[in-house]
Structures are given as C-alpha cells and as structure tokens.
C-alpha cells in the first residue's frame, strides 16, 4: 500500500463511501422521481437534469444539515459536559488540557497559536465553527431545494402558484423534514455515549480499552 494511502486510509475510506452512496442515491432518486412524473403524465428527466432538481437537492441537504448540526453540537457539548464512564467524554477531573495553553506553543504549533489575538480566539473554536457553518450552508440548501420541490409538486398536482423560500420556511413540511433527521442524529450520538460506558471495540479510538473499568471516563 502506498505510504500516502496508508496515512490517509480512514479519510479515503469515508469519502469513498460517501461518493458511492451519493451516486447511488442520485440514481435511485432519479428513477423514483421519474416514476412520480409519469403518474402525472409529465416527461421523464435525464439523470444530469435530475441532479439540478429540488427533489435531489432537498434529499441531500436535509441529511447533511442534520449530520453537521449533530457533529458541531457534539464537539461543543463535549467541551463543557461530561458523561462518567463514557469513552466519548473527558474525565471528571479534566478542566483544561495543558496542551491548550498557548503559552506552551512551539515552532511546530499552528500559526494562529503562535500569533495570538483574534486568530487564536477563532482557531481555538475553529472545529465547531467549521461544522456549524457547514450546517448553516446545508440548512439553506435544504430550504432552497425544498422550496423548489414543493413548488414543482404543487404545479404538477394542482397548478398552484409558487411560494417563496421564506414562505416554505414557515411550513410544517419543512420543519417535519428537519426534525425527523435531527432527532435521529442526537439519538445515535447519545446511544454511542452511553454504550461506550459498558461495551468495547478492540483497537478503536472510539472505545475504551477492553480491560478498562466501566467507571473510568475517556478513551
């Protein structure tokens, strides 16, 4: 295995799976959407044309939205809250990690740490900020895609005039789509937090070592 691949194998595996599943989603979504169009006597779309529809955008972004909300929220919550015994939590006695003190910066430390000031303030929270910014972008993508899909459905079914994104934001349909994803994401993470107290996965950094007591906190 090439060195670069070995050193980046986890990212390659995750993004590789992402592209495979996104492609499959687009293909099955395209087929499903054309079946819906056929029910109303509308002409089918080509696959490239389908990728520009609200049907595809809504489905993609409503899932990205929930994923990045969950991850951003989780990063923030784990900075301040603990779960005794969980591999996903810092220990009860851990307040600030010594390595987080900018006075311990070395020549190898990232530039914002060595510079200090506002760059350091931003950098200290850059992971959660990045995740929440992606969430915000996905939220907007979901809103725009959902509006386009809602208007397309209304035009097919009843010929109703289109509504604006702001109007769609106020519909129960939009928030139903969001909440059904948000609740499942936080359920999954909460389950991992609790199960990691009692269960183990050999060699995984998401698990405590097999021999570690249940009451011990942190991986």
What do you see in this structure?
The model has no long low-confidence stretch (mean pLDDT 93). The chain contains nine helices and no strands. The chain folds into two domains: 1-51; 53-219, no CATH class. It has helices spanning 3-7, 9-39, 47-50, 54-80, 111-115, 117-124, 126-157, 165-169, 172-198.
Features:
219 residues; mainly alpha; 2 domains; 0% strand; elongated
Provide the β-strand percentage band: under 5%
Largest sheet: none
Total beta strands: 0
Estimated structural class: mainly alpha
Gross geometry: elongated
Distance between the termini: 29 Å
Radius of gyration: 23 Å
- Report the helical percentage: 55-70%
Order of helices and strands: HHHHHHHHH
Question: What is the compact description of this entry?
Answer:
With 219 residues, the chain is mainly alpha-helical. The protein has helices spanning 3-7, 9-39, 47-50, 54-80, 111-115, 117-124, 126-157, 165-169, 172-198. It contains nine helices and no strands.
How are the secondary structure elements laid out?
Layout: H1 3-7, H2 9-39, H3 47-50, H4 54-80, H5 111-115, H6 117-124, H7 126-157, H8 165-169, H9 172-198
Helix pairs in contact: 4-7, 4-9
